[in-house]
Design brief:
The protein is mainly alpha-helical. The protein contains twelve helices and three strands; from the N terminus they run αααααααβββααααα. A three-stranded antiparallel sheet has the order 1-2-3, with helices on one face. Helix 7 runs antiparallel to helix 12.
């Protein structure tokens, strides 16, 4: 449970943002002070308090710090773009239960998790070329490897940008639940999505840490 939520969940919430920022590997991300702060906020402040399983909080925090140490290991070249494979399914399995638990516990709206979902939506914006969906950042073009690439392509094509968070988060096919029902969550995701589109991922990360 700890590995699924704190290690894998953090990977899934960070991968799109890292690719948008032009950061190639996990160790590169934690070497960057801003991105390291984002990852630490995810693990310690937002995921750890809402693990949907009874585990002593001291054990949770100890494991979380071990995850941070593991991420710093420069001997392992763990590429963010590879982590983005099956992005939707990973968020659904690893993160959505924690998100639901967070709201059940009436914790503050999780800023870093919200940014993680906003980065997912931006990452999944694509063009279709001979049956392949291609995303693009300021740094590179990449092939989407996700069973919902087509659905996300359609949502981007048919939805105004200022309604994208609501449209994506309410889609039961993606999450098996309507995440729009979480109070103010889609509005928060939309705020970060707008920030990414207008000012870039670095500005959005900075906002999530403020």
């Amino acid at each position: 449970e700890l590995k699924l939520r704190l290690l894998n969940g953090t990977h899934s919430l960070s991968c799109g943002a890292a690719v948008l920022a032009g950061i190639e590997t996990v160790s590169d991300a934690v070497a960057d002070p801003l991105f390291a702060g984002f990852i630490k906020k995810l693990i310690i402040d937002e995921l750890s308090p809402a693990i949907p399983f009874h585990i002593d909080q001291e054990i949770i925090l100890k494991f979380g710090l071990q995850v941070l140490d593991r991420f710093r290991n420069t001997a392992v070249s763990h590429y963010w773009l590879k982590i983005c494979t099956d992005y939707t399914r990973k968020l659904r399995i690893r993160v959505v239960p924690v998100l639901l638990e967070s709201f059940k516990l009436n914790l503050p709206i999780p800023a870093a998790i919200s940014l993680g979902f906003a980065a997912y939506i931006v990452f999944m914006n694509s063009r279709l070329d001979q049956g392949i969906y291609w995303g693009k950042t300021a740094f590179a073009e990449y092939q989407l490897e996700d069973e919902f690439s087509g659905l996300m392509h359609t949502l981007w094509q048919e939805t105004s940008v200022d309604m994208l968070a609501s449209s994506v988060l309410s889609n039961i096919q993606l999450w098996n639940v309507n995440l729009n029902e979480l109070p103010s969550f889609s509005q928060t995701v939309q705020t970060y999505l707008n920030l990414i589109k207008d000012h870039g991922i670095v500005a959005a990360i900075s906002k999530s840490l403020s």
